[in-house]
Structure formats: structure tokens, C-alpha cells
Amino acid sequence: MTTAIGATAPSEGTANVATTPIKFERGSAFHRSLREKVDAYFRDTGLKQRDCWQMYLKSIVVLTLLAGAYVGILALGGAVWPTLGLAILLGLAMALVGFNVQHDGGHRSYSTNRWINKSAALTLDLLGASSYVWARKHNSIHHSYTNITGHDDDIDVGPFGRLSPHQPRMKMHRVQHFYLWFLYGFLPVKWHFFDDFRNLIVGRIGCTKMPRPRGLDLAIFVGGKVVFFSLGFVVPMFFLPWWLVLATYGVASFVEGVALSVVFQLAHCVEEAEFPMPADNSNRIDNCWAVHQVETTVDFAPRSRVLAWLVGGLNCQVEHHLFPQICHIHYPALSRIVEDTCHEFGLRYLSNRSLFGGIRSHFRWLRRMGRPSLVAA
Question: In this structure, what are the phi and psi dihedrals at residue 138, rounded to the nearest 5 degrees?
């Protein structure tokens, strides 16, 4: 028996994923055992899955850093090098807000209160991208169809790169392991000026239909863009020369883009991850959803508390994909439970021990995908 992923891993917008969704095997002993152990962990420790005081404190810290860097740029009044230095800090702060506040809010893992989650998710609109589009692209599509070529839009960078063995290879991909790192920095620019508007107009994300926002959602979409472009360009023009405003935006968005892209790529586009495809002439994956997540997702430096704090627990991506509605501060502890359960059921628990180990693995994967001898049939 099979079931649509929406029944296996519910998340916001899943019902709108596709008219013919990929199907997975129904449940598994592994998934049941893992859920029981995680439930027992919270029951025995008395910890809350959401509404954690550490999360609220972290949010204050990273949002204060974001506001401080922005105000500092305006206060400098046009001093070029200090302004560009703060632009780097601003870009890092934007990434920190995305990792730690918006991401949990978007997954409804920040709080049990709907409006607190919504407010946290809306920080993405403050950063210039649409929380509405992100919820469908990330929650509904990426988390449902992880690393499935033609369905997971997050592994599709168009002609610029080849991230999956099932994507066509172009001659320029031979050196993609060098140039893609630079192109990662333009991810926010695509969000700000192109992707969100294109998705809204065509009503699709990749090959998947997306319902166009209406009412309050449409107002937030438009209002978010107005607020971002006002804060990013209009307001700074009163304090800085126009060319420095553009330079500041370029530096900050580039730093943010590299940080966001690399963290994602280290979890999915590495040598250890699988890129399964449905059986011929079917829409079935011969695994249950939970096993699929374990095989297509890779942790990196899962024991590093500093890295976990900085990237919102996304160094523990296996745990995040299995339990996206649990606050990320619990992922390091859950990683030990997940690893033990994987070993118990004979599954490979995929992990790179360090951040640099993950970076090396991604570099090698890009190089491998660019070789002409590795074109999928």
C-alpha cells in the first residue's frame, strides 16, 4: 500500500503540492519506533517541543544584531569602508534571522501559538522574500520530495549547475565546482527581483502548481516587498550616496546568499546523499517517507553547539526533515536518538563530522556531476 506524502508528513500547504503527487510506502517500523523514542524523550525530560525560552532569547539577539547593523550603516553617513564592513555584518545577521527565526516560524516549530509562528515567519518578508511562496516551495515541495529530480525545486538551479545525476549536463558544468560558489551569493537577488514575482504570475513553482495568494496573503506579499525595498533602497538614499546604497545592498545580499546556500547544499547535494527517482512509468518511491528522508539528507558537524546555534540547528538536517515541527534547539539531542535508531534498523545515518568535511563533500559532488562520464541514462 502507498500513500501520498501529505498523509505521512503534514506541513503547511501540502494539499496543494501537485495533482499527481509522488507516493511513498505506507509507514514503517523504523518511523514508528523513532516517533515513540522522541515522544519518550520529551516525556522523560519534561521539555517542551516548542515555546522554548532559549528560542525567544536567541530571537532577541539576532534581531537586535540585524537592527544594529542596519542603523549603524545609516549612522555612518557615507564612510565607505566602515559601511561596507557593516554590510558584511548585515548580510550575516540576515542569514541568522533566516536560520533561527523565520525558519522555525515557517515550520510552526517556534510556538504553539499560530500568530507567534506567523510573526516569526514574516521576518522573511522583512528580508525581501515572500513567506507565502517559501512555505509552498520549502515546506510542501522540498520537505515532501527531497532530492527527487523534477519535483524538488531546491535542487534545480537551471542551466547554471548540475546538482543531480538525473539532470542534463552542459559543457560549462565541467568547472561548476569552482564557479557555483560565487553564484550562490545571488540567491537573495533572485528572490527579491525575480523568483517571487514569477511564481506569483505563473502560479507554479518549478513543475508544481502554486495557488496564488489572495486577501491577507496577497496584502502581505505586496506589503513585504514595499517594506523591503523602502528599507533597502529608499530610506538609505537619505543618508548615503546612491552608489554606496547599491554597493551596500550588493555586499549584504551576497554574504547572505552564500551563507544560506552553502548550509542547504551541505545537507542534500553531497556525495553521501541519495537522489532516488520513481520507478519507470509510475509516481512511486519504494521507501516510506521517513526512510527516504534519512537516505537523502546529511548532517554536518552535528555535535558542534556553536554551529547549531548559528545555523538554527540546520547542521542536524536529518532530524529537521524527520521532525520539522519541533523547535531546532532540540535537534542536537535528537540526533543521538535518530542515529541509534538508524543503526538498530540497519539504515545508514549520513553525517559529515565537521563543517569543512561537508564543504569538501559538496565540492567533490559538484566536480563529479560536471564530468561527462556521469550523465544519467
Answer: -90, -60
Q: CA-to-CA distance for 73 and 251, rounded, in angstroms?
A: 12
DSSP letter at 353 equals S
Q: In angstroms, rounded to a whole number, what is the distance separating the alpha carbons of residues 219 and 87?
A: 29
pLDDT tens sequence across 251-294: 999 999 999 999 999 999 999 999 999 877 778 888 899 999 99
Bridge partners (DSSP) of residue 205 are 208
SS3 205: strand
| pLDDT exceeds cutoff 50 at 137 | yes
Q: Where are the alpha helices (DSSP H) in the chain?
A: 5-8, 29-45, 53-76, 80-97, 103-106, 114-121, 123-126, 131-134, 176-183, 187-190, 196-202, 215-229, 242-268, 289-296, 305-310, 317-322, 331-344, 355-369
Yes or no: say if 302 and 332 are a contact pair by the CB < 8 Å rule: yes
- Supply the pTM of this predicted model: 0.90
Tracing cell 566602515 back to the chain, one arrives at 82
Cβ-proximal residues to 138 (8 Å cutoff; 6+ apart), any chain: 106, 154
| DSSP of 276-333 | --PPTTS-EEEEEHHHHHHHH--EESTT-HHHHHHTTTTT-HHHHHH-TTS-GGGHHH
**CA distance linking residue 14 with residue 251, whole number of Å:** 35
Rg (CA), the chain: 21
C-alpha of 316 from chain center: 12
In angstroms, rounded to a whole number, what is the distance separating the alpha carbons of residues 112 and 104? 11
The C-alpha cell at 312 is 538554527
Q: Which residues contact 247 (CB under 8 A, 6 or more apart)?
A: 84, 87
| pLDDT tens-digit series, residues 17-60 | 344 678 888 878 999 999 999 999 999 999 999 999 999 999 99
State the average pLDDT over residues 122-147. Answer: 94
The amino acid sitting at 76 is L
Distances in Å between the Cα of 279 and the Cα atoms of 22, 166, 284 are 11, 13, 6
Domain residue ranges in the chain: 2-374
